[in-house]
Specification:
Layout: H1 9-17, H2 23-29, H3 31-40, H4 47-58, H5 67-79, H6 89-108, E1 115-120, E2 123-129, H7 132-135, H8 142-154, E3 163-168, H9 172-180, E4 185-190, E5 215-217, H10 222-238
Parallel strand pairs: 3-4, 4-5
Antiparallel strand pairs: 1-2, 1-3
The structure holds zinc ion (ZN).
Length: 239
């Protein structure tokens, strides 16, 4: 268990809220990412917390961290992609179900079933699905359609602070659009091994030169999200 000292009680409490209870869980997340997660969850921290986290992982005392280690950690911090504290699992599943409803609508229309919803302040401001065939437009992916809807709802193409829930990992076109729209958090369901641009083929969100504000999380209701796609392609083969 992570304890005080060396960590401050409020840091330990925040780590627990983030699901990091043990040294092993801290190791899986890493000192730098954990530090960024703590900041994203609202804590005001100094670099000394980063040294404390690193020393816990090394089994040493914070004062034993060398200048070399500090320089390395600061460089890692600088190039680390954005991290965010994500909503509770039930909340993410709730919005993903709405995205799944959109995906079902795609399937009913004979389009590749991908759905997306955009959420601002806990409220859905856009729901869309893939309409490439109907619109004879290769850019009409669920995400692009949802961004257009949300932009007109907000009267602003920049969607700072908004989240998107997508049933499938975004492609490079959509990932780029999401970054440019300054979406805060991208939550997706199933990975897309052939075209995924959030880690499967490339990760556009992980390059600090391209992205300084959009955090990603995959795997929410991934079985259901994958199932809607496999059902669609099975029916297509049968038909
Ligand atoms: Zn796309």
């Amino acid at each position: 268990m992570l304890t005080t000292p060396p960590l401050a009680p409020k840091t330990v409490a925040a780590l627990h809220r983030l699901g990091i209870h043990t040294l092993e869980e801290l190791r899986q997340t890493g000192a730098v990412q954990t530090f960024l997660l703590l900041k994203a969850s609202g804590l005001t921290l100094t670099k000394s917390t980063l040294w404390q986290l690193e020393s816990l992982l090394n089994g040493t005392l914070p004062q034993e961290i060398t200048q070399h280690d500090k320089t390395r950690l600061l460089a890692e911090l600088k190039k680390h992609p954005p991290v965010a504290a994500f909503p509770p699992q039930e909340e993410m599943e709730h919005f993903m179900r709405e995205a799944l409803r959109q995906a079902e609508q795609s399937a009913a229309d004979g389009e590749i079933p991908v759905g997306a919803v955009i959420v601002s302040d806990g409220k859905i401001i856009a729901s869309a699905h893939n309409t490439c065939i109907a619109d004879c437009n290769v850019s009409c992916h669920a995400e692009i359609n949802a961004l257009a809807q949300a932009g007109s709802e907000m009267q602003n193409y920049r969607l700072d602070g908004c989240d998107i829930y997508i049933t499938l990992e975004p492609c490079a076109m959509c990932a780029s659009a999401l970054i440019q729209a300054r979406i805060k958090r991208v939550i997706y369901g199933a990975a897309e091994p052939k075209t995924g641009a959030a880690g499967s083929i490339v990760n556009l969100f992980a390059d600090k030169r391209l992205n300084t504000h959009t955090a990603i999380r995959g795997g929410i209701l991934q079985e259901e999200c994958r199932a809607v796609l496999s059902r669609f392609f099975q029916n297509k083969r049968k038909g």
